């Protein structure tokens, strides 16, 4: 039986990736590693036919897997890394394909096509969702102040299955306050390295729920914190954090109101 390893530290992204793979009804075994360290252990213990990995994880990047992936085919998924970083990973590790996590989640639709060609097997085309207008209690866009949440992608990823949609919302509600608390502490402690890591991780949840403005705020914090110590501790980063914290609280309240409708 073919074995596929998914390396991804964001739980909602894990749900999206594993569901996308399982709905193809292919006879594969799927394993998940939530960190570089866990991936190293699994790669040492199991011979995988394919690895699907996020580039930037909390405890490192795919560059830390140079030796571990030397004889394993893999597909790279990146957040907002620039093209030079992607090219560097491809040249050093030899990724068979690279995808960027786009706001419309096209990478989730294109990924099965690459897997199909790699294994040379026929995949099942996911069924089209019913018209949004036919969904009971479905609201595509919910908003308050400058927070806009688009639930269309969530319904698309999980084929409108309410229990799985509910689980993804509950994960957001549970994890985002904890991530914001970590970000607050890292900024206060002027820990620029961890500011970069936590804001990068936070973007996945915002992306799944179509929160474009909040992704831009997280991008701004991440890039400034990564460029220099002075940029990491500047007033604009602090102001961006305050706005992101406020927006996250609003988003959580909006999603809490949506849960009873599922």
How does this model look, in words?
It is a single chain. The protein is α/β, with parallel strands linked by helices. The protein has two domains: 118 residues, Rossmann fold (3-Layer(aba) Sandwich); 130 residues, Four Helix Bundle (Hemerythrin (Met), subunit A) (Up-down Bundle), CATH 1.20.120. 54% of the residues lie in helices and 15% in strands. It contains ten helices and nine strands. The protein has a five-stranded parallel sheet, sandwiched between helices. α1 links the parallel β1 and β2. α6 packs antiparallel against α10, α7 runs antiparallel to α8 and α8 packs antiparallel against α10. It is globular. The relative contact order is 0.12.
Based on helices, strands and strand pairing, what is the structural class?
alpha/beta
Average pLDDT, rounded to a whole number, is 84
Q: What is the CATH architecture descriptor of the largest domain?
A: Up-down Bundle
Largest sheet: 5 strands, parallel
Strand fraction equals 5-15%
CATH topology of the largest domain: Four Helix Bundle (Hemerythrin (Met), subunit A)
Low-pLDDT residue spans: 122-137
First and last CA, distance: 37 Å
Number of domains: 2
- Which shape, going by the Cα principal axes? globular
Helix content: 40-55%
How would you spell out the order of helices and strands? EHEHEEEEHEHEEHHHHHH
Radius of gyration: 19 Å
What topology, given as strand order, has the largest sheet?
2-1-3-6-7
Total helical elements: 10
**Total beta strand runs:** 9
CATH class of the largest domain: Mainly Alpha
């Amino acid at each position: 039986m073919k074995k596929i390893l998914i390396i991804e530290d964001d739980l909602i992204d894990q749900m999206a990736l594993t569901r996308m793979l399982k709905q193809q009804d292919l006879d594969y075994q799927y394993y998940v590693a939530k960190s570089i360290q866990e991936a190293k252990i699994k790669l040492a213990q199991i011979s995988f036919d394919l690895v699907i990995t996020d580039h930037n994880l909390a405890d490192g990047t795919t560059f830390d897997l140079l030796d571990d992936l030397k004889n394993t085919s893999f597909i790279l998924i990146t957040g907002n890394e620039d093209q030079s970083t992607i090219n560097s990973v491809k040249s050093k590790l030899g990724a068979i394909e690279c995808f960027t996590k786009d706001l419309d989640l096209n990478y989730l639709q294109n990924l099965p096509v690459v897997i199909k060609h790699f294994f040379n097997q026929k995949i099942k085309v996911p069924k089209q969702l019913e018209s949004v207008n036919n969904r009971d209690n479905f609201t595509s866009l919910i908003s308050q102040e400058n927070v806009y949440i688009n639930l269309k992608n969530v319904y698309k990823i999980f084929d409108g299955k309410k229990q799985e949609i509910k689980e993804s919302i509950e994960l957001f509600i549970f994890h985002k306050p904890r991530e914001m608390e970590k970000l607050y502490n890292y900024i206060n402690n002027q820990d620029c390295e961890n500011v970069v890591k936590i804001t990068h991780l936070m973007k996945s949840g915002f992306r799944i729920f179509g929160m474009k403005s909040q992704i831009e705020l997280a991008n701004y914090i991440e890039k400034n914190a990564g460029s220099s110590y002075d940029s990491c501790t500047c007033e604009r980063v602090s102001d961006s954090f305050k706005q992101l914290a406020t927006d996250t609280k609003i988003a959580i309240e909006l999603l809490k109101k949506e849960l009873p409708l599922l």
